[in-house]
Amino acid sequence: MANDPYKYFRVEARELLDQLGRGLLDLEKSPSASDLVARLLRLAHTLKGAARVVKQREIADHSHAVEDVLAPYRETPGPVPRDRIDLLLKLVDGIGKSIAGLAPPPDQQQVDGPSSKQQGETPLRTVRADIAEVDELLDGVAEAHTQLSSVQRSLGGLERARHLVDLVAKQLAAPRARGAERSRNGEPGNKAHSLVEELESVIGTFDRSLTSGLEQMDRELRQIRESAERLRLLPASSLFPSLERTARDVAQAQGKQVVFEVKGGDVRLDAHVLGEIQPALMQIVRNALAHGIESESDRIAAGKPPVGRVALEVSQRRRRVAFVCRDDGRGVDLEAVRRAAQRKGGLSKETDGMATEDLLRLLLIGGISTSGTVTEVSGRGIGLDVVREAVERLGGEVAVRTERGEGTTLELTVPLSLASLETLVIETSGVAATIPLDAVRSSVRLAPEEIARTAQGDTIVYEGKVIPFLPLARIVLANAPSAGAARHWSAVIVEGTNGIAAVGVDRLLGTTNLVLHPLPELAHAAAVVAGASFDSGGTPQIVLDPDGLVAEAQRERTGESQPQTTRPPILVIDDSLTTRMLEQSILESAGYLVEIATSGEDALEKASQKRYSLFLVDVEMPGIDGFTFIERTRSDADLRDIPSILVSSRDSPEDHERGRKVGAQAYIVKGEFNQGQFLERVRKLVG
After folding, report:
1. Largest pairwise CA distance in the chain
2. SS3 10
3. Integer Cα distance of 174 and 184 in angstroms
4. Which among 14, 93, 146, 380 is most buried, taking Cβ atoms within 10 Å?
């Protein structure tokens, strides 16, 4: 605190200022002001007191001025006049500039990084948690602690069991005493037998109590992790106050009446996505207000309501989020755009035959100025290049649609680095995965005769239409059973961008909310993989991509398949689904045939039935580990000539040496994984 006397004041002041700004915008729209005025007075008073504590007189004086303007309307029915709102917003802006000037000391800026100053001034860098979500997190912690206490209490039963074991041991160690007891009681070993029964009862009770407690703790800790991950994301509504303020200021400066509407504030996004997209949205709103919405007289003359409308909607579309801004203004004057483009660079011949989409694309490129005829073009070329650049930095796209006299729609779609998803949990061949719930049309139970096998692939009839059927195990597991096998299937009807398909699974395990994480850049996963989530133990779990699933099913139906190869397949052995699929994807992309095993025991069973060209083995697995697996293959006359590569997160010299001694041809550390070097090692061993 001594190094940075304003550390906590900046956080509190920004929060109070944000609430004041939002409250004033609400106040302007409120027909009855008294309750809202009272809340704003409390906020201003709190800010004034905090400013005085840290000796920020200017901020305290501005806060006091806010109180002076608001005080007369505390008991007054009706709205606050617009000129008073203008003055209040100006005072709030002044406070904001003063707070922005309270920069942290240079040493703190260095700790925060070179961009900390800019980042520190935007409210999007502060994750504000919803009270209900914090309560949910705290409830989970409290419940987990309760369950831990229950487990600790049950340990008393273990002490009782230990005591009984000592008694039984004494009974068994004293045969003469037991002989005397048999003489007295007439029942041989009666006391020892009673002790054993009591011991069994105590152990049984302890086992049930411990199992139940641990299962409950696992559920609670999983809930805590999910809640904490959701707190990592920000609601899109955090963008709305600044956009609403922009709309208000531009409308007032232009002398226009405009209603600004927002929707989709509950969509949760990573903070850096919101930080990148915010300036682009502000530019779009400015353009819509300044150049899209007509004046009141022009709107009335055109038969429109005198009040214009600008609406922003945020929606999540699986792995992408869309920001759609619509206005009911004059639309883009395409002929003026054509003329401006011609003036810019002698594009007369090129623009003469351009369609609407091509002309709008020119606006996104930027640099087109209509100079004195800005209002004719609605100003849509100004700033749209800034919008395009911001979206491209996020790997997204911009689309513009317009209709003369009806308005313009700009749609920004960007991929999500993190996203909160409702998913369906499914299982196939012992492997669990998830599918985004918004892509699931329904689930059905299929009898063998309901699956048609044709030259074009496996199909079923769904809602009167023939759609492709693909067993999920065929993608995630080698040697999976075919759809034509005489068995029943649970099928998930998945809808993608280019159609629908039925995905066959073994079981539906329910639904869950998870946070989708992107895969690392070096992980060239199959198209069916959207990303990964993490369970309560931090183990990654695959999230399947609906578009990829549908495309794969359609590919199977059209007879497309992986190129055939004469070399034996490579056996990938790993208990992690994520690692298996990533390694399989890399190897198959390089033209290798790949099969997978989920444990060392499973791999030995497969190797006894089929010839492989290479074993790619994880070190740490349940059951026999990678070292032991290689030792056993080296001791088998039929397997000893098959090369092996160990893959592990362990990087100690002892582990490398042990790998060499058991006979591994290579040892790859996961943290230093290089795809090119990996494939080169495989080529040297397999060809």
Report:
1. 121
2. helix
3. 16
4. 380
